[in-house]
């Protein structure tokens, strides 16, 4: 079933980029429910964000009193949305005018999809069903630099049983694959060997994959491209570091990177990451909001969890 504009809620996480937020909102149809979550911006940038709120009264602005990071803000956007579908993004995203049509074209050809990455991790469309299957975005990835996208991708590979973004053919030239001729057999079925692997997927679609038949939305906003917003307008604000564990450090407490050239992996659940590296899970996921996940399970699957 194709989506109407009232069927999806956009959640934008904003932090010290008032001017860019205004540009972002200008590319969104006001008929689409929109949540702006501000992570405790202050000073001049907060004034700019207030201006954006006045310019776009159809958007619901939430001013959080603490910088809780990206993943918690996204989880809150999912919970606070009143629609089955959500789109998670940040204030540096600029949407192409045909993005909604592209989304519906993807769903028309792949009606069982539950998440569509219109621009990798810059614009991720979710049905709340996928929270039942995979759990929440891991809020432990709060502190910069982070790897919440790597974590989510590996969890997709776990659920789907193959790597939906890369494949053996796509990644065979990575150094860690060389000198290990039995690599495919060792990690099967966690790597897909067929180029038409989207036909296997009932969960995830990546427009960024070379196998995608659909355009990447907001490609010019990607790092290094002409509409790249950079880190912040004027470098104001702070990124929570202090003595806290960075997202990279947190990732290495949850996943172990292994080298198939030197480590025996036949009896391990080895997962192929989006960067071509191989990972084994060593930490569990936490159910941050069990009451909502249970609600979604009953609503969409009629089951109790």
Q: Which characteristics define this entry?
A:
10 helices, 305 residues, 10 strands, three-stranded antiparallel β-sheet, Spore Coat Polysaccharide Biosynthesis Protein SpsA, Chain A, alpha/beta
CATH architecture of the domain at 5-142 and 161-167 and 194-240 and 285-301: Alpha-Beta Complex
| Largest beta-sheet characterization | 7 strands, mixed
The CATH topology of the domain at 5-142 and 161-167 and 194-240 and 285-301 is Spore Coat Polysaccharide Biosynthesis Protein SpsA, Chain A
- Give the tally of β-strands: 10
Count of DSSP H/I helices: 10
Query: Which range does the strand content fall in?
Result: 15-25%
CATH class value of the domain at 5-142 and 161-167 and 194-240 and 285-301: Alpha Beta
Q: Can you tell me the overall shape?
A: globular
What structural class should be given to the helix and strand makeup? alpha/beta
Instruction: List the uncertain runs.
Output: 167-200, 232-241
Q: Bin the helical content.
A: 25-40%
Strand order within the widest sheet?
A: 3-2-1-4-6-5-7
> Termini separation (Å)?
27 Å
The CATH homology group name of the domain at 5-142 and 161-167 and 194-240 and 285-301: Spore Coat Polysaccharide Biosynthesis Protein SpsA, Chain A
Computed CA radius of gyration, to the nearest angstrom: 20 Å
Mean pLDDT: 84
H and E order: EHEHEHEHEEHHHHEHEEEH
Written account of the structure:
This protein is α/β, with parallel strands linked by helices and 305 residues long. It has a domain at 5-142 and 161-167 and 194-240 and 285-301: Spore Coat Polysaccharide Biosynthesis Protein SpsA, Chain A, CATH 3.90.550.10. It is built from ten helices and ten strands. It has helices spanning 18-26, 43-55, 69-80, 99-109, 129-134, 148-160, 168-171, 183-187, 247-254, 290-301; strands at 8-14, 34-38, 59-63, 85-90, 115-119, 123-127, 204-206, 255-258, 270-272, 278-281. The strands form two sheets. The protein has a seven-stranded mixed sheet with strand order 3-2-1-4-6-5-7, sandwiched between helices. The chain is globular, with a radius of gyration of 20 Å. The model is unreliable at 167-200 and 232-241 (pLDDT under 50).
């Amino acid at each position: 079933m194709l989506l109407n504009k009232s069927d999806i809620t956009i959640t934008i996480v904003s932090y010290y980029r008032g001017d860019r937020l205004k540009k972002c909102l200008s590319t969104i149809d006001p008929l689409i429910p929109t949540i702006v979550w501000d992570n405790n911006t202050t000073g001049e940038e907060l004034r700019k964000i207030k201006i954006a709120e006045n310019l776009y009264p159809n958007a619901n602005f939430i001013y959080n009193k603490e910088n809780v990071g990206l993943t918690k803000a996204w989880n809150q956007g999912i919970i606070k949305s009143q629609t089955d579908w959500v789109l998670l993004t940040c204030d540096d995203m600029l949407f192409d005018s045909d993005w909604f049509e592209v989304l519906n074209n993807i769903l028309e050809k792949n009606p069982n999809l539950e998440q569509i990455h219109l621009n990798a991790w810059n614009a991720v469309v979710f049905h709340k069903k996928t929270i039942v299957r995979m759990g929440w975005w891991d809020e432990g990835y709060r502190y910069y630099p982070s790897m919440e996208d790597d974590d989510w991708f590996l969890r997709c590979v776990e659920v789907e049983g193959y790597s939906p973004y890369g494949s053996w053919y796509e990644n065979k030239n990575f150094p860690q694959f060389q000198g290990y001729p039995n690599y495919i057999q060792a990690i099967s079925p966690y790597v897909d060997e067929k180029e038409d692997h989207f036909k296997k997927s009932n969960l995830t679609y990546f427009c960024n994959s070379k196998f995608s038949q659909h355009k990447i939305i907001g490609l010019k906003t990607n790092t290094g491209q002409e509409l790249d917003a950079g880190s912040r307008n004027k470098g104001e604000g702070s990124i929570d570091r202090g003595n806290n564990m960075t997202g990279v450090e947190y990732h290495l407490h949850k996943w172990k990177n292994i080298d198939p050239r030197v480590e025996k992996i036949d009896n391990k659940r080895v997962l192929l990451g989006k960067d071509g590296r191989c990972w084994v899970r060593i930490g569990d996921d936490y159910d941050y909001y069990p009451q909502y996940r249970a609600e979604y399970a009953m609503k969409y699957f009629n089951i109790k969890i």
